[in-house]
Amino acid sequence: MPLDPETRKLLDDLAPVIGELDEQTPDEARALADEGMVACSGPGDPAVTTTDQRVPGPGGDLIIRVYTPPGGRAPLPVVVYFHGGGFVIGSIATHDGVCRDLASASGAIVASVDYRLAPEHPFPAAVEDCWAALEWVHAHAGTFGGDPSRLAVAGDSAGGTLAAATAMLAGERGGPALRCQLLIYPGVGVTEDQASVQDNAEGYLLTLRDIVWFMGHYLGPDGDAQDPRFDPIFATDLSRVAPAHVITCEYDPLRDGGQAYAARLRADGVPVTERCYAGLIHGAFGMQALVSASRGMIRDAAAVLREALTEQETATTRA
After folding, report:
1. Is residue 315 included in any domain, yes or no?
2. How many domains, the chain?
3. Catalytic: 252?
4. What is the pLDDT of residues 77-123, one digit of tens each?
């Protein structure tokens, strides 16, 4: 399918502004991302209320922003959300609109995690933070109106990788029990020779050069790219992880990796649904202020979460 026209306009508008990531410092990239991500996602649903929780983490306190949708009756299901940004950029602030809209559309509380970023805090700092956040949410969900028996993890891009990693750890460690892992174009199972990487290496926001820049900062000089916490596709056994819904986009270099991970989960006996969005690019889930199809992605993801987190379901991280 041809590139979505609204996405084409957005790319044309961004081209003279964003430059090449590998010519920027992480701080320069963050400053640009803070402005751009917020502009693309918009303010989100103002009826959703928020509170910030300061919780203990392995490297110091973490902030978890709790989004509560209007009209729900406690206890509500909880989605622990990990923001994207290549492990280097992004924050709970850049994904505020996304989390507001996801909470509003799903009827679930969304708990967004401000994990540590590379290169100041290289792998496995982000994974350790996200695991600590998941454990805290499970233990304390009742204090903010959440139901710890109806719990999911979700994330976009690097956050999708972190959601997959935390779901893997939950399976290995016998809990917290998860109903669902929502993986939005995760950076999992990606190799340079994949058709999606070759075909979309330039011109569609996330470039191959960007991927190399992000991974270099995150993994650092001593990291192991085949550590399952870095890329869960290298796990020996994924049979105990929660059911997954994997979202990919046609013009995304990470497309084939996400689909390979979905296939690996199925091979290990995990229930998986997936959808590839034709005409869209990496980052589309956070473009709802400018791209009509992106609003549809959030509605679709919310429907998946609603189905997974209904009262009647049985928690499905398999111990």
Report:
1. no
2. 1
3. yes
4. 999 999 999 999 999 999 999 999 999 999 999 999 999 999 999 99
